[in-house]
Amino acid sequence: MKYQLVCSDIDGTLLNKDRELAKATIEQVQRIAPIPFILISSRMPKAMRHLQTEFGNTSTPLIAYNGGLVLDNEKVLHSTEIDNTVLAETIKKCEETSIHLSLYHADEWYVPSMDYWAKREENNTKVTPEVLSNIEVLEKWKNEGKGAHKIMCMGDENEIDTLYKSLEIEFSDEIMLYRSKETYIEISHKSISKKTAINTLIDVNYPHLTMENVVAFGDNYNDVEMLKAVGLGVAVGNAKVEVLEVANSVTDTNKNDGVAKAIKEYFQ
């Protein structure tokens, strides 16, 4: 069989309207086992593992932070962190605004308070953050020799616009800025992507495969490069126009079990 590895985005792609795995999706993923089904997301690992448990594939590698962290169980296959100078400046730029900063490293998630944005993400991801000021997190990570795998900025659309433009001008050589929503900016290191992460995974764990053997599912801008690179890039019906344009195939929407329907079609 040509396709021997499946990679799927989570939010807006794999989960249904209730942000849950539909029964049909679980059944199809289990049906094609032992073909690895890899979760690939901007989420932190802890926000992905409960989905692996539902699939019954907890030993399968996962790709977190848009490719910033690639894990095979507890083994780190790849890790790229944002430099703390970027984090320090981002904190500084947000000081006079109402923007919420969530800071992530591996399975650490820090928020300055359990405000609207923190509670919203907690509800979406089923993970509870630790409350610590942004400055305290920065100092902690400096002392531990660590940086952020992801910085998430959430808040008023106009303030987010201003921050986006400022960070883009100052750090365009170092970071990738991604607007998942008008009120969100997700920041990762510029050198990584979902495509680079799949390449890493193939090189280390599946050297007998190439990108041509991979099926990938996505819906948003951060999925474009991945869908273009794999053997079969599938967009869900609710995907952004730019994603629909580059996909090899378009399935039903996430709310109508699009991933499950595509797996059923392509893995007879």
Q: Can you walk me through this structure?
A:
The protein is α/β, with parallel strands linked by helices. Helix content is 37%, strand content 22%. The chain is built from ten helices and 14 strands. The protein has helices at 23-31, 46-55, 84-94, 116-125, 134-144, 157-171, 194-205, 224-229, 241-246, 258-266; strands at 5-8, 37-40, 62-64, 69-72, 75-79, 100-105, 108-111, 130-131, 150-154, 175-178, 184-189, 214-218, 232-235, 249-250. Strand 3 and strand 4 (69-72) form a beta hairpin. Helix 1 packs parallel to helix 10 and helix 3 runs antiparallel to helix 5. It is globular, with a radius of gyration of 18 Å.
Short description:
This protein is α/β, with parallel strands linked by helices and 268 residues long. It has 10 helices and 14 strands.
